[in-house]
Amino acid sequence: MLRSALIAASRSATCRTLVEGTPVVRPIVDRFVAGPEIDDAVRVAKDLDGLLVSLDHLGEATLDRAHAEHTVEAYRLALRTLGEQGLAGRAEVSLKLSSLGQALPVDGEKIALDAARRICEAATAVGTTVTVDMEDHTTVDATLSTVRSLRADFPGTGTVLQAYLKRTEADCGDFAGPGSRIRLCKGAYDEPASVAYRDKTEVDAAYVRCLKILMRGKGYPMVATHDPRLIEIARMLAGQADRTAGDYEFQMLYGVRPDEQRALAERGLRMRVYLPYGTEWYPYFMRRLGERPANLAFFLRALAR
Ligand code: FDA
């Protein structure tokens, strides 16, 4: 219930004004977000030496074409900067199609595809890749279709599958082919029981079933979880599938279990940190609060102060 309430709050303009206008919240946001500018993200990426990185320019669901264009320019700047700073070898970018206009009422999918294509071109120019995030379940078909189109020209384009969706085992089968980069996460939105498992045990079991398909497949699984049990299971399944440490990677969010991120990298495993930056941190931040009651308690204490 708590998680549902926070996800609902992430869409409320009133809550957004309250939270964004409260300076004491800032240090908590800074735990999860590199800062407002690309230079902040680059500084943090350099500090994360020894770890791989995926930069996310924060922003979601826009119905404003100019805003979508602004997002494309932000990604192009980010990719140029990664190239100039010599970081493109260990840093890629993650993007949300909704921030590129996917939900625009006329030609939204086409506009988002064209925008994503230009970002993929910029990524290819500096020698790195793009991963397309997954949003709520109503967008999955459109997102997977866009990813298929992108992969025709940019085969390294990755995407995300969410284990909590009942359809995802089948999607894992479809996307486990040669060259595919699939990030498997549990899922961060508040989905109805008609399409998603809502019980933690069921989500975890579905995650393991999906992992089995991806590890046995021919693609490159990206295991995005902070859950220690699932990390151990992923390592075991990788071994059973004769995968070496270079044949898959772990991913975690910036600010979540940072010691474990380092520990896995020190054990010779590939670890990528999802590193958000930008000014539109509110919805991302609220989803992170909803994932752990302790985060919310800390946040409420700061707000009360
Ligand atoms: P779970 O929530 O069970 O957490 C396991 C443990 O990890 C917790 O007990 C706690 O110790 C720690 N933990 C988890 N979240 C925490 C937090 N916010 N603060 C502090 N501790 C925390 N989702 C989505 O729908 N679409 C997407 O595109 C992505 N992309 C994505 C990329 C990457 C790299 C990651 C790691 C995650 C995503 N997600 C996502 C989010 C994902 O769906 C999920 O909501 C979170 O990763 C939390 O799930 P866990 O697998 O960590 O398990």
Pick out its properties.
305 residues, alpha/beta, TIM Barrel, 2 domains, 8-stranded parallel barrel, 13 helices, binds dihydroflavine-adenine dinucleotide
Question: Nutshell version of this structure?
Answer:
By secondary structure, this protein is an alpha/beta fold. Helices cover 51% and strands 13% of the residues. The two termini are 25 Å apart.
Describe this structure in words.
This protein is an alpha/beta fold and 305 residues long. The protein folds into two domains: 57 residues, no CATH class; 245 residues, TIM Barrel. 51% of the residues lie in helices and 13% in strands. It is built from 13 helices and eight strands. Strands 1-2-3-4-5-6-7-8 form an eight-stranded parallel beta barrel, surrounded by seven helices. Helix 10 links the parallel strand 6 and strand 7. Helix 1 packs antiparallel against helix 12 and helix 5 packs parallel to helix 6.
Task: Write the SSE topology.
Layout: H1 2-9, H2 13-20, H3 26-32, H4 38-47, E1 52-57, H5 65-84, E2 91-95, H6 108-126, E3 130-132, H7 140-153, E4 158-162, H8 168-175, E5 181-185, H9 200-216, E6 220-224, H10 228-240, E7 249-253, H11 258-266, E8 271-277, H12 282-291, H13 293-304
Parallel strand pairs: 1-2, 1-8, 2-3, 3-4, 4-5, 5-6, 6-7, 7-8
The structure holds dihydroflavine-adenine dinucleotide.
Dihydroflavine-adenine dinucleotide is lined by residues 133-134, 160, 162, 183, 185-189, 224-227, 251-253, 256-257, 274, 288, 291-292, 295.
